[in-house]
Amino acid sequence: MIVLALGTAIACGPPGSDGRRGSQGLADGRSGQAAAPKVLTLAIPRELDAWNADLIRVTRGGGTAVLGYIAHNRLVVQDEHFAWVPELAVEQISVEKGTWRINADNTMDTVWTIHPNVVWHDGAPFTSADLMFTFTVMKDPEVPNTVGAALRIMESASAPDPHTFAIHWVRPYVDAAQAPWLTVMPRHLLEEAYARDKVGLPSHPWMTTDFVGLGPYRVVRWERGSHMEFAPFDRYFKGRPPLDTLVVRFIADDNVMLAALLAGQFDVIPATSFDMGATLDVQSRWEGTRNRIGGSLTGRLVTLEPQHRVDFARPVNGLANLLVRRAAYQAIDRDQLAHVINRGFAPAADSWFFPGHELRPAIDAAIPAFPHDSTAAQQLLREAGWARGAGGTLQVASGESLEVQIATPRLYEREANIVADYWRSAGARVDELVISADRLDDLEGLAKLPGARMATQSHANLMTDRFHSGSIAGPENRWTGRNWSGYANPRLDAVLDRLVATISATDRLPLHRELLREQLGNLVLMPLYWEYNPFFVVGGVTGIRDGGAWNIYEWDRSS
User: What is the bridge-based pairing of β-strands 217-223 and 227-232?
Assistant: First the structure.
């Protein structure tokens, strides 16, 4: 397969330790002739911003996570069942094995053992010293980063030998097994730059054009605005990956991408957001072929997140008022919304516990119910002081109209249109704001949006510090706090504090029920529907399980 592209070529990272840029052919033992190289071409909607999203706030989504799986590895990785399994680590930390300990003083220790035969793409050995360097950088207040609660309670770390990395925590943290905020950075390449210019470290070329990773494939070419090319890393610790060349093309337009797929211009579209009508069209065209379409729930849900700070919310007696939030939520027919968007592939969301979640049977009765009910919505609005005025628009006694803004990235513009129509039917005036790509980096501006922001959320994030008052975005944290809408509730804080410190699954159940009452009962955010990401694979490509690239070292194709 030949990839044609326009743009400026950037050679990324050094060649492998064997000095080659990639295999040109393999000897065929049966014929004595060179077999055709195995080339696999993927397409994703977005180009990469930076390789380390822990250190640099980047625009998420768009399939860019695929690139991280191709060229880099983490201590652990999330598999198709949302379980965190070892990658660079030899095994998952465990209470039973003593590598995850709660101490008598309520502090915690975790001990990771890493594989002994892992090397960076430039041939340098990967050791616990790299993890220690990463920890030091991430804990340094002089280095701009996207710090979360987990990092703040990691008090200290040590590397007692090249293959052991230990962290001491000031209190228990239930998600420690995810190795949060530890995207490994190479000490041998960044230590000098870190000592010289801490503030400038996030701009170091390693973050973009000079990347050297630990993954199964290494970057050999980056055509800005077009594609990346990867070659197999012969010294990958799990064995040389099967493909001789892997190409990832960036195609922002869904229609262009699907047309190119049908024209045979590439082989795989990994799981990503697609219009389900277009997906069904491809499915019908591929009927009777070896090509296939798969998909699954992503563990992410699309939500509306209202502005909770009265300093920024407009009107003040709008979505910042729980009665108005309940009315706005019950005015939306979420089942119909999910049907229009997902064509029956994925349901409406009533919480952050997706259908089939292992805890769903135990917490189902605790999920607050907000069924679609236009009559109930009108009653709640009247209780909040809003009544229909001239022309049917909701007004308060002073004459002020209920004018609500829905802000959304372009990806969810259609969903915002549908919600806006429901709210207009309820009597509100709705302003739909499409957030341009450049505004997604304006953290202060996003935190001050006056109405509701449409976004996608990880189900797991909504069980941690996402809406803790200590995570509120503000000038003191450069507006990087994950609680961008400024919700503050001491009762919720107490539940979240206990939840992240409780390791026992049995003891966590009542806390999950409390969290549902405090966080969902107060509609801190409004769940809309579950994301379902289809993926597309041409015949002859093997190893793809769920459309995610976490196991891309297993992907192969018939030569």
Answer: antiparallel
